[in-house]
C-alpha cells in the first residue's frame, strides 16, 4: 500500500472514531510504529490532524485567522448564541470572551438588559456601546491580534480583582480526552485564569469544535459547568459530560 493511500485511510478512521492510536494503526496496517508516526507527523504538518501522546485527534478548524473564522459555521454560531443569551439574568456580572460566537451573542441581547460585562476583547466592548443599561469594563493588556483579545501580566492582574457570575468562554476544541483546547499557549493560560474568577463557565461550541483538539490545553472539560451546542452529540461525549455533571444546553 502506498503511503498516500494509508494516510487517507488513517484520516477516514479518525473521522469515524474521533481518535487514532499509533500502536493500533501499526497492527492494522502491519507496519512499524515509526512508519505510522511519520504518517501522523506529515498529516499534522498539513493541518489535517492534531498529534497527541500515543496517536492523534481531529484538528479543529476554529484556529484559522479571525477573518476566516467569521464565515465558519455562522448559522450554528447564531443558534448557539441564542441559547447562551437565555442564561443571562439582569444585574449579573458577566465575563465575555473574544471570538466569533460570543460576538453573535451581542446581537441578541435585550436592549434594556441591565448588567455588567467584563471583557478583554476590544471588539466585544465596542459591540456593547448601544446598550445603555450595560456597564462595560474593558480589561487592558497586550493585544493578541489573532483573536482580538488582550493578554499578559497586566490583564491577569486586572481579572484577578473580578468576581463574576458567568464566564462565556470561547474554545477551539472540545474533546473527551484532550479537554478544552485553543491554538495559543498564552491564550490558554488567560482562559484558565478567567475561569477561576467566575461562579460558572459556559462553553459555546459550534459543530467543528466538537471532538476536535488544538495544540494548547485550557483544562479538562470539567472547567465548564455548561456546554452550549447546536445539536445532539455522540454517545461517548454525552456520557462523559453526564458523568462529570456538566449540563448540555
TrEMBL record:
Coiled coil: none
Alphabetized UniProt keyword annotations: Repressor, Transcription, Transcription regulation
UniProt domain HTH deoR-type: residue ranges: 3-58
SMART domains on file: DeoRC, HTH_DEOR
MF terms in GO: DNA-binding transcription factor activity
UniProt name for this protein: DeoR family transcriptional regulator
Lineage, top ranks: Bacteria, Pseudomonadati, Pseudomonadota, Gammaproteobacteria, Enterobacterales
Amino acid at each position: 500500500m502506498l503511503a498516500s493511500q494509508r494516510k487517507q485511510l488513517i484520516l477516514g478512521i479518525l473521522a469515524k472514531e474521533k481518535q487514532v492510536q499509533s500502536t493500533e494503526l501499526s497492527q492494522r496496517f502491519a507496519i512499524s510504529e515509526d512508519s505510522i508516526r511519520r504518517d501522523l507527523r506529515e498529516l499534522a504538518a498539513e493541518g489535517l490532524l492534531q498529534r497527541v501522546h500515543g496517536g492523534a485527534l481531529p484538528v479543529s478548524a476554529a484556529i484559522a485567522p479571525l477573518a476566516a473564522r467569521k464565515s465558519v459555521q455562522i448559522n450554528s454560531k447564531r443558534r448557539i448564541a441564542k441559547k447562551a443569551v437565555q442564561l443571562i439574568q439582569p444585574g449579573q456580572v458577566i465575563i465575555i470572551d473574544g471570538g466569533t460566537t460570543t460576538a453573535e451573542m451581542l446581537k441578541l441581547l435585550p436592549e434594556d438588559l441591565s448588567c455588567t460585562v467584563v471583557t478583554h476583547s476590544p471588539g466585544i466592548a465596542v459591540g456593547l456601546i448601544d446598550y445603555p443599561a450595560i456597564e462595560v469594563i474593558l480589561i487592558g493588556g497586550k493585544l493578541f491580534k489573532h483573536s482580538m483579545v488582550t493578554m499578559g501580566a497586566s490583564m491577569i492582574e486586572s481579572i484577578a480583582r473580578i468576581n463574576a457570575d458567568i464566564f462565556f468562554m470561547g474554545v477551539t476544541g472540545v474533546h473527551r480526552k484532550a479537554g478544552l483546547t485553543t491554538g495559543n499557549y498564552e491564550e490558554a493560560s488567560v482562559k484558565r485564569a478567567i475561569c477561576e474568577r467566575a461562579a460558572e463557565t459556559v462553553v459555546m461550541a459550534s459543530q467543528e469544535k466538537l471532538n476536535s483538539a488544538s495544540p494548547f490545553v485550557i483544562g479538562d472539560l470539567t472547567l465548564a459547568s455548561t456546554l452550549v451546542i447546536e445539536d445532539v452529540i455522540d454517545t461517548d461525549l454525552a456520557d462523559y459530560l453526564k458523568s462529570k455533571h456538566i449540563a448540555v444546553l
